[in-house]
Amino acid sequence: MPKLARDLLFPLIAVVAAFIVGGILILLVGDNPIVAYRLLLGSALSWPDGIGYTLFHATPLIFTGLAVLVGFRCGLFNIGAEGQLYIAAFATAWVGITFASRSAWILVPLCFLGAILAGALWGAIPGVLKAYFGSHEVINTIMLNFIAVALVSYFTQYHYRVPGDPILQSAFVGEGAHIARLGKFIPGFPERIPLNLAFLLALLCCLLVYLFLWRTKWGYEIRATGSNPTAAEYGGISVRKQIVLAMAVSGALAGMVGINEVMGYRYRYYDGFSDNYGFTGIAVALLGRNHPVGVILAALLFAVLQHGGIYVDGFSEHITKDIVQVLQGIIILFVAAEAFFKWSLGRFGFRRLKA
Q1: Are the CB atoms for 185 and 45 separated by under 8 Å?
Q2: Kind and range of the H or E element at 276?
């Protein structure tokens, strides 16, 4: 069995087991799990709205899943993707507002650069604190999340909000900062659906992250640091440099959520726009086994649950969209219990799969 397929086998078992347990819970509250799952999955996979919105919801999860993946590969737990994407989204809007009169040929690259650099800078801060002062990245990134959200809320409220606007949001970015929605290119796919070119950018980033981590010297050094920092340092690798680099790359990937949000959807910074994308990205990376292909599949699964949960909440008799959080939590619990699954497979004779 190919290594990637073998690596993704246990997350698949976790998903199936979670749906079974979820079905039992639905039965206990007096609903039909088959009807509930048909509503959950059918609404998310219908054409064009279901698929369009599912892919749209998957876009930020791919970015944040990749962000967490890069950190994990260096032995780092980046819980700061949430703060990094907020800082980057505001930076994207700031560039789009400040240089609104520029042409799209100039403004789009500038906004892209603003999102990437802002996310990278916010990610590099805990990297530097970890590498040179020994401060744990989990504590640093959690604290920086609060600082990021408060900081951009302050600037939006007192400097970039349109006077009289009751909603905490910035002014619109220049039209040159807009990126096209996919409905412009796909026949029968309406432009009202916010799926945009950022989705294709997310897929491209999956390829680039794979090439970076598994086909370059820098990626090898990051993975070596994550596997065994002592051995990596003995082999001539600067562990400090890799920690800072990994956190900066991680922050840059999380920051690209701002491209999807500001340039392809709202065309402004909207305070509180994130639906816990940074934290869900941790689950996406774990379920995807820290591989870009797995991240795509996991992001699509969570996007299906997120979009389908809206219809379950509206049309199911006894269950609400909270079933989505229940399923997500059960999936992660089963992923964390991978050792148990391997032991079970070994007990029943599936030793080749277990290996």
Answers
A1: no
A2: none
DSSP state string for 94-117: HHHHHTTTS-HHHHHHHHHHHHHH
Can you read off the two tokens belonging to residue 217?
């010297």
Residues in the chain: 355
Task: Report the SS3 class of residue 355.
Answer: coil
Q: How far apart are CA 29 and CA 156, in angstroms?
A: 44
Measured between alpha carbons, how far is 16 from 265 in angstroms, rounded to an integer?
Answer: 33
Q: Which amino acid is at 170?
A: S
- Give the residue carrying structure tokens 């509250």: 29
Helix (H) or strand (E) holding 42: helix 33-44
Going by the DSSP 8-state scheme, the letter that residue 263 receives in this structure is: I
- pTM higher than 0.85 for the full model? yes
Give the E-state strand segments of the chain in sequence order: none
Over the stretch 170-179, which tens digit does the pLDDT of each residue have? 999 999 999 9
The DSSP-derived string for 183-228 is: GGTSTT--TTS--BHHHHHHHHHHHHHHHHHHHSHHHHHHHHHHH-
Lookup: tokens for 185? 């290119």
Does residue 321 contact residue 26 with C-beta atoms inside 8 Å? no
Rounded CA separation 305/300 (Å): 9
Residue type, 309: G
Q: Residue 122: which of 284, 15, 255, 10 has the closest Cα? A: 255
Spatial contact of 95 and 111, defined as CB atoms under 8 Å apart: yes
For the stretch 88-120, pLDDT in tens is 999 999 999 999 999 999 999 999 999 999 999
- Are 70 and 209 within 8 A, CB to CB? yes
346-355 b/e (C-beta count within 10 Å ≥ 16 → b) = eeeeeeebbe
